Structures are given as structure tokens and as C-alpha cells.
Amino acid sequence: MSGFSKKWRPWVLLLAGIAGFALLSGGCAAKKPWKPPVQQKPAHPVPEKKFELPPPPGTTLETRPLHERIIRVLLTLPVKSIAVDGCPIRVWKEDGTLVAESTGTFSLTADGSRIRVGGMHSDGSLDVGSAASFSVAGRKFPAGRVRVVNRQGKLLAIAAIPLEEYVAAVLSREASPSFQPAALAALAVAVRTYAVNGAAKPRDPAYDLLNGVDDQVFDGFDRVFPQFRAAALETRGLLLWSGDAPARANYHSTCGGRTESAADAWGKPYPYLVSVPCDDCRESPAYRWEYRMTLDEGKRIAQGLGLRARDDLKIEVVSKSPTGRAARILLSSGGVTREAAASAFRQGAGTTKVKSLMIEIDRAGNGWKITGKGYGHGVGLCQWGSDGMAHRGRSYQEILEHYYPGTRLSAGAS
What we know:
By secondary structure, the protein is α+β, with helices and mostly antiparallel strands. The chain folds into three domains: 17-50 and 79-151, no CATH class; 164-249 and 385-410, no CATH class; 288-373, no CATH class. It contains ten helices and 24 strands. Mean pLDDT is 85; it is low at 1-27, 29-34 and 36-63.
């Protein structure tokens, strides 16, 4: 427990005092340029009372109240400069010292190991925030703060988001607003469980999760419609459990008729990530698809997989998983052959082009015709399948039982 508390301590200071800031900040009748504050001492000191209260004795990560958890999301790859816009915007040091104010657009820029804003330089990280909506690196946020860190001469922007707000925001990017409430609720549980696992095992000391498909898509709060917030609220605090630990709640867009097991997809078995039938994702626009690959594109992919290809390049599926998904691809040219994991071939082609590994590859003219079913890795919950189940009257609990067999839905480990 002590390690968990220590990890969140800097974010306690980041989030504390937002309510007081809201009372002190007025509206913006006209945009004003960046200016340094008149006083160099903290204009809005961080209150002594911490945002995150100490947990009861014996509390563990698994039993800690979820409303106390913050998810730290990396917003940008390392960049030289990060644009900020809002009305008003303020910039603080980690200790709460106000160092900049603006009612327009400005940038934070890496200058060696320091961060430059306007004519001021600062060591360490800076917190950017507003009592009204604002944007950082093109992503819109409600009232709050975003931390900017200088790492080896490049800036990282990291959002600190209350868990349930994060769940609703991810739903707005990972699901269709037309999905049935039960399907959105099932996905909300999966998103929350994934996030809690990420917070338990952060990708980096500065952040827990990435903001894209390598984790979960987070892109701000500008399209978080009421149905997404309703799904988060209906399932508030609920996680999927396997034994005494949160389950690995992977999900994907469309399975194409049957989900894939984690053992066959990634070589690591989980008792609840097994292949299950799915007859409910037929309404997905990616249930069936076709992609035409040119010879030049095939050569580029082959070279990336270690084969210098000529015009006689051949590409074929040589092994499949029990669900019919491609497992290994054989490439041959000029008497030389290379065998590669089908997942590496898909990455080389682009996952939006070759949408899944449930594919057939046929020669078509100078290139290839790739026909397939489904979208994504196929493991865990099928989003379009869950919507189909919801249309048939299934509850979100039944949806979760189908796609994660053997898991338990609970707000705690017991």
C-alpha cells in the first residue's frame, strides 16, 4: 500500500485546490496575451488537506475505493513544444507557485532540460490548467490540470483523470453512440478494469497508460455524450475479477463470428480469455471486408520482414489458429523465403487496411486481394457482438459472462 500511495503523491498536489481556483477565476471578455504573475509567491497555495484521503489500515490496491483513483494518461509523444489554449489559463510549478497566466493561445517549449513559457524558464515539471474548458496539444479538457514534463530535452503532456471520467471519455472513442445501453455498460466495465490494471502496473514512472490503441483510445472530452456518462455511472466501481485480482479485460471491435483465445493470439493463456462463439456482430461494417494490396506495397512489407523482394514476390498463409485466423505468413522471392508471424505482416500492412487476421490472401493481377472478417485482435469482448446481444435483450452482466467466462463482477475482490 505504501508504494501505491507514494506513486500518487505528486498527483495529489496537481489536483488539489481546483475548486478554489474555479472560484477565483472569472470569465474572459477578450483574449489577453501571456503575462508573468505580479507576485512570485504562490498565488493559490495548495491546501493542507489532500485531495486523496489516507486509506483505512489494511487497504490494498484491489479494495481501495475507486473514486479515489486517478489515471495518468500520456497525451503526446516526446515533442519540442506543446500548444495550450483556454480562457483563462494558468501555469504552476509543482509546489503550487503560479508562474504564468494567459487568456489566449501560447506554447510550452523544451529549452535544454528546462521548460520555457513566455519569457520564463522553469526547472522540473509544470502544471497547466483552467477553471473552464481548455485544450492541451489539441485535446479538450474540462476544468482541471495537465502536467508537462521535460524528459531529455523533449516535452511530455500527461493528463491526470479521475477514473470514472476516464471511463466515459474512453467509451466516447471506443464505442459507437448508437450502441445499446447494455453494450455500453459492458464495455464500461471492461474499460474500467483495464484502467485499474494499468494503474497497478504503470507503463512509465510518470504515466500509467498510453492514449491510443496500444492501451485505450483517450482523446479528450469534447464528444463525451450523455449515453457514455450514463454507462459509466450505471456500472460505477464495478470491475471484472479473476480470483483476487482484476481480470485482463481485453476487447476489440468485431470478432467475425468467433473470438480468439489469448493463448493463440499472444502465446499466454488466461482461463477467461478463451475462444467463444459470437453470432451477434454481423451488423458491424467490418464483419466482412476486402483490401487490394499493390506489388510495391507487398515489396515494402516483405523488406520490413527481412526479405528483399522482386516482382516475383509470393505471399501466402501457411498456418492458422483453431479459429481460422492466420498464424504464420510465408513470403518468397528470387528463391529466398521468409516466414513471419501473421501479426507482424498485419502491422506492416497497417491494421486499418488488414483489419484482422481472419484472412485469405489471393493473387490479383500484379498485387493481392486480401479478404477478411472482423476488426482487431479478436480477444475478449467483441464490441459489435455485445451490441447484437443487447439488441436481443441480454443484460450487460450476461454480455460480460459470455465474453469473459469464469470472471466475477464486483466492486471488490471478495
